[in-house]
Amino acid sequence: MKIDGVHYRTIWVADDGWSIEVIDQTKLPHAFQTVRLRSADDAARAIKDMVVRGAPLIGATAAYGLCLALRDDASDATLNEAYQMLAATRPTAVNLKWALDEMVKAVKPHGHSVRVDAAYAAASKICDDDVEICRRIGENGLKIIRGHAEVKPGKTVNILTHCNAGWLACVDWGTALAPIYMAHDAGIPVHVWVDETRPRNQGASLTAFELGRHGVPHTIIPDNAGGHLMQHGQVDLCIVGTDRTTATGDVANKIGTYLKALAAFDNDVPFYVALPHTTIDWTLDDGVAEIPIEQRSAREVTHITGRTDAGEIVTVEISAPGSAAANYGFDVTPARLVTGLITERGVAAATREGLLSLYPERR
């Protein structure tokens, strides 16, 4: 995607040929800055501190983190140590472990002398594959949006999304936002209701930033406004992303997604989840019982960062001093509330058979 006319991916090999550059998403939307990663520790901190975030991008960053570790020492011991460190950074997104496993498979059979080159080639492939997967998700989701446009000719298709599942969450294109970009580019009138996504405000800061730079009409709304809009017929469909999807179609996404799915179900609004196959955890059946839910710092709830009218970036406390705060990063939406899963292979019912119809090799 483009920022001020310049094409960017979210992660790339720097000009020196070995260090890794990423967009610092903690600075958006007020400043566009990049960060250079020179070690596996740097990659782990970038993931943990949410300099990079979004399941596919977390996986890509971890992959390059292994590359950086192997540059210092290509031994099995270093490979295993870096794997464990990177895998522990964030527990919910399954892409993290998937990418690390892919890297180990690509690197371990080689002798130490060629492991670094093999690692960089494997990480590059993970990134390139993610771009193509997201492009295909966009094409499959575009058909759904086009169908809604056809039943209300000349009118705007209103889409609600939660958190950020655009190109900033992936390497390029995105998952939930890819169909929206393609619809907009195809001339279909679309408008996006952007949930602010407390407490980190990824919707207000990241999704709105992306859509604005691409010229897609959008409106930021408080997290609790979605149900009201659905009751009044102002939402045609919801599209969200997911950080882990069970083999039975349950989806873990940013906290608050479950409530939107309930409101959509109650108001007969289609609720779609866009995801790459790398986000499917085929080992799990019950998302509520089995998906680990990350708990983050209470400070993200009690404090907020923004820009003053004078242009200064400040962090302020918004809660009653001394009050405890809980910060669950994700919730699980049961498959029964999901209209369909938009994947790179097509749209499936949120059921085991639905997923297996697209991924028969998993039978």
Automatic annotation (TrEMBL):
Annotated substrate binding sites: R53, G54, A55, R90, Q202, N253, K254
Catalytic activity: 5-(methylsulfanyl)-alpha-D-ribose 1-phosphate = 5-(methylsulfanyl)-D-ribulose 1-phosphate; 5-deoxy-alpha-D-ribose 1-phosphate = 5-deoxy-D-ribulose 1-phosphate
Top-rank EC class of the record's enzyme: isomerase
GO molecular function: S-methyl-5-thioribose-1-phosphate isomerase activity
Signal sequence range: none
Pathway, per record: Amino-acid biosynthesis; L-methionine biosynthesis via salvage pathway; L-methionine from S-methyl-5-thio-alpha-D-ribose 1-phosphate: step 1/6
The protein's name in its UniProt record: Methylthioribose-1-phosphate isomerase
